[in-house]
Amino acid sequence: MWLPRAAALVFRAMEGSFVYLSFMGNIADSDGFIASLFNIALMQDGFILTHIVSVEILTVVLDGCLALVLMYAIVREKYYRHFIQITLCVCELYGGWMTFSPEWLMGSPNLSTDNWLYFWVYLVFFNSVWVLIPGLLLWQSWVELKKMYHKGTSLEKKFQ
Fold this sequence. Notes:
Layout: H1 2-24, H2 33-38, H3 46-75, H4 81-105, H5 116-158
Helix pairs in contact: 1-3, 3-4, 4-5
């Protein structure tokens, strides 16, 4: 239950603040802690910044809402819990891929890899978390759906 809560919090706080700062000011000129996390060399390229902001808007709105629905489905033990969980995980993995793959495909000319904080904390650690958590949740849904399937097929065999 803590994973969807953490996801909802991060979508609203971290990524929401990135979208807010992108529309209401300039991230490069901001002095706050949150702005410093996003103040990477990617901000030098207007096209890449626009691409990232467009993916983040979708992430904040869609994934944030899905995380809230998922929390409700878990607490109330709703039948659609794993559908929402799988959808949220796939959206998050897709968003991560679309944020970084264009830069990687161009040879990473705009990524700041010489700064320890940006490389190890932002690029490696934070983005590893956003691959690991959806991966674990996808595995959990796979296992639970497999159990439900086998439980259903064993019941059908009993009644035949």
